[in-house]
Amino acid sequence: MDLGALTAGFVTGLREGVEAALVVAIVLAYLVRSGASGQFPKVWAGVGVAAIVSLAAGALIFATVGSFQPPYENYFEAGTLLVATVVVTWMLFWMRRQSMAIRGELHARLDRVLAEETGWGLAVLAFTSIIREGLETSIFLVGQTTSAAGSGSSIIAGALIGLVAAIAIGWTFYTGSRRIDLRAFFRWTGIGLIFIAAGLISHAVHELIEAGVLTFGAQPVFDISKVLPDEAGIGQFLRAILGYSAAPEATTLAVYLAYLIVVLALYLRPARPVTPPSRPVPAPEGSQPVRS
């Protein structure tokens, strides 16, 4: 069992799983307060279908990766890693913007569904709320297992452990506990995923270099494989968590550092408060209205 890959998978499963678990917890808690707890089965039906679709999509992508021969395998792996990087980067910043409003947005959608008096709308609501997280998780885990060099089972095991922990956090949230600082949780796990994503995008560049697509900066900057190899021990752990390479090419290292610096700087910058739209202020009759 590769501890680094296990930890990387755990962070992914926990981070993505908590988002999905919180959505379900908010929906169920609101239904209880609205006296509509009898609609729970339809919510779980939507969640179940979303989980099945996500697993099927991940299995299909993973099975397809192994069916290509070089250099097409390099092309496909590079594409999968780039897609995974884009997905997780978009997800991090979307969640950063929406985390404060997610509860209110879900409540508004629930009100509309309950007003329609068709309970199956809840299944659709649950499905659409969960499928995004599920597909993101599948794509990201496929990217991680692709770059894990034989440690895919450790990543999947870590992700499953992370999902179990996420379910426990969602249950705690549903039962009313406020001991979990969700803002700090998402901030620190987000930072962890940025380091993992930096490793994915640098590995994608490495695959393109091996395929001969990129020729500029293809020479290793240094080689410390005799001191800290990336295929065993601490180096293997650092590779899974931080994208470490014992002999990185110049382009690979440049892309890794550029992604890490730019995305971390944007992610950690103070969030700008949302300015509400101006509303017309009533004016005395006969005069022009003014805006606040």
What does this structure look like?
This protein has about 290 residues and is mostly helical. The protein has one domain (about 5-270). The chain contains nine helices and two strands; from the N terminus they run H-H-H-H-H-H-H-H-H-E-E. The protein has helices at about 5-35, 40-65, 70-100, 100-115, 120-145, 150-175, 180-210, 235-240, 250-270, and strands spanning about 280, 290. Strands 1-2 form a two-stranded antiparallel sheet. Strand 1 (about 280) and strand 2 form a beta hairpin. Helix 1 (about 5-35) runs parallel beside helix 6 (about 150-175), helix 3 packs antiparallel against helix 7 and helix 7 packs antiparallel against helix 9. The termini are far apart.
The number of domains: 1
Helix content: over 70%
From the helix content, strand content and strand pairing, which structural class follows?
A: mainly alpha
- Multimer state: single chain
- Report the C-alpha radius of gyration, rounded: 23 Å
What is the H/E string? Answer: HHHHHHHHHEE
